[in-house]
Amino acid sequence: MAPSPVIAIMQGGLCGTLATMFMYGIICMQAFFYIQNYASDKKRLKILVASIWCLETVHTALSIHFVEHYLILNFYNPEALEYVVWSMSVTYIVGFVIAFSVNLCFIWRIWLLGKSLWISSCLVILATIRFGFGVGNCSMSLRYTLWAVFRDRVYPTMVAGWVLSVLADSAIACALCCYLHAHRTGIRRTDSIINRLLLYTINTGAITSFFAVLVIIMFLAIPDTQAFVAFVQVQSKLYAVSLLASLNSRKSTLQKAQMAIPTDVSLAFLPTTSKSAPLSPFEKQTRRIEIHQSTDVYNHQDDP
């Protein structure tokens, strides 16, 4: 028995919406954790977190709306599946805004680490072009509401936009890794913290790039379904999760860095005689040298 066309078309959107609802819960938990533990952060950081949370709330609500439109309100109207509902288009526009905002935040960190205007500018241009392709494609779906027509119209720009997504995420992750690696000091404790940041950066860039590749594969390999929609929905949540996780991990990272190694050093019982004067047996036995060393770690507050 052949599968229902409704299942073939809407399975991706339904699975993607369920996944986004689960990840939205994680985002709410991260936002609450941030409010509880980083009340002293700069105002711009608080505005950033609040904006990301609001956008993710809108993104989740719109995802629920278009699934309700197709699977509940038009349950007995399969022809409705041939048309793009407005909430689906707006959902992806909101997702691209979130991705662009997070990309700019990480590019700002690259600027703080390297102070390279050329590299930062190139990354901003790449992220902006990618954002333009994404919003442009979604805007086309509001004009060409028939799925078949929309797919034919945006086929090349859709693929180009997601290829740019892979390039942008990979380039940002590589730049961060290079600058973090350049800041190694040779001190085991400091290098272990940098290694932790490197691993986190690589994983973040790899996951978002991997989902962009999956979108391209699904869009090209299964043209008659909306399987690619699930990965588009989840990728938006991954950007928000990665940003909030990086902000919430600062305290634990700094606590490890601020653990000073006490090597108390006091110059005690040193002889007060001249170099040429011989030492008494008592002075020879009581000579002791101690070194007191403390390590100060300074927290850079210009984090976006």
UniProtKB/TrEMBL annotation:
- Going by the entry's taxonomy, the superkingdom of the source organism is recorded as Eukaryota
Q: Which InterPro entries match?
A: DUF6534
- List the PANTHER family: CHROMOSOME 1, WHOLE GENOME SHOTGUN SEQUENCE (PTHR40465), DUF6534 DOMAIN-CONTAINING PROTEIN (PTHR40465:SF1)
Residues that span the membrane, as ranges? 6-35, 47-66, 86-110, 117-135, 155-176, 197-222, 228-247
Query: Which keywords annotate this record?
Result: Membrane, Transmembrane, Transmembrane helix
Pfam families in the cross-refs:
DUF6534
UniProt keyword Membrane present = yes
Which residues are in the DUF6534 domain?
165-252
Q: Which segments does the entry list as coiled coil?
A: none
| Source organism per UniProt | Serpula lacrymans var. lacrymans (strain S7.3)
Q: What is this protein called?
A: DUF6534 domain-containing protein
